[in-house]
Amino acid sequence: MSLSKDALQQHCQTIINSPHAQNKTVILCEGNIQAVQGRASPSSYRQLQKLPDANFYKACVPDWWQQKRPEFFVCGDRQDVVNTYFALQRIDCNGTRFDKTRLFAIIDLDLTLCKFADSHPVPDSETLFHTLYQQGKINRQALIDHAIFCHWLNLQRSVFLIPDLQCVFDAYAAAVHYKNSSVNLQKIYQEMLTNLSEDKKISKNLRIFLVHTKE
């Protein structure tokens, strides 16, 4: 469920006023914004940086990157992240130390489209995906031109284990089990394929799913 108009505005003001966003690179990401207890405040939002997905992204920042490290803010679901990004871009930040030129967003790739504002260079998440990734490679020029990014094959239904990994599981020091049996990728593949037919989301968006798995 996306943030209401009033909740979105309050969310944006909290980010702008946060000490962690002053003269910083700010990256919006998905995460449970409901974890904020009571009235939202810069103090409570600091705690949100310790929750998924913000804590994961923060851990991915290289140790050697000591100067101008980015700050991550969870914003709710994927649409909330996008709505927050465009709402922040529309707000007059004169008189504050919030730099909109250093505002970015990361969203998950999914079967359903996430639409962007009309002012954005691409209309939705699917178009963005095909702009950022071409033939399995990152389009570096597109990275320069965009401030919203999506994961490549982040959709768990489109990520299949590589068959060659079977020998890795077999040789692993500790036994690796799946449903109380040793991992057998061939059996797992068969189960995954059987379950795909029961996924209504995939059935409704089969074309997009096939494109993602092909990529």
Poorly predicted segments: 154-159
Order of helices and strands: HEHHEHEHEEHEHEEHHH
Mean pLDDT rating: 83
Distance between the termini: 30 Å
Biggest β-sheet: count, sense, barrel? 4 strands, parallel
Radius of gyration: 20 Å
The number of helical segments is 10
Strand arrangement, largest sheet? Answer: 2-1-3-6
* Helical percentage: 40-55%
Q: Quote the beta fraction.
A: 5-15%
List the helices and strands and how they pair.
Elements: H1 5-17, E1 26-29, H2 42-48, H3 54-60, E2 71-74, H4 78-90, E3 103-107, H5 125-132, E4 133-134, E5 137-138, H6 140-145, E6 148-150, H7 166-171, E7 177-178, E8 181-182, H8 185-196, H9 200-204, H10 206-214
Parallel strand pairs: 1-2, 1-3, 3-6
Antiparallel strand pairs: 4-5, 7-8
Helix pairs in contact: 1-4
Would you kindly provide a written description of the structure presented here, covering whatever features stand out?
The chain is an alpha/beta fold. Helices cover 40% and strands 11% of the residues. It has ten helices and eight strands. The chain has helices at 5-17, 42-48, 54-60, 78-90, 125-132, 140-145, 166-171, 185-196, 200-204, 206-214, and strands spanning 26-29, 71-74, 103-107, 133-134, 137-138, 148-150, 177-178, 181-182. The strands form three sheets. It has a four-stranded parallel beta sheet, with helices on both faces. Strands 4-5 form a two-stranded antiparallel sheet. Strands 7-8 form a two-stranded antiparallel ribbon. The longest helix has 13 residues, at 5-17. The two termini are 30 Å apart. Residues 154-159 have low confidence and may be disordered.
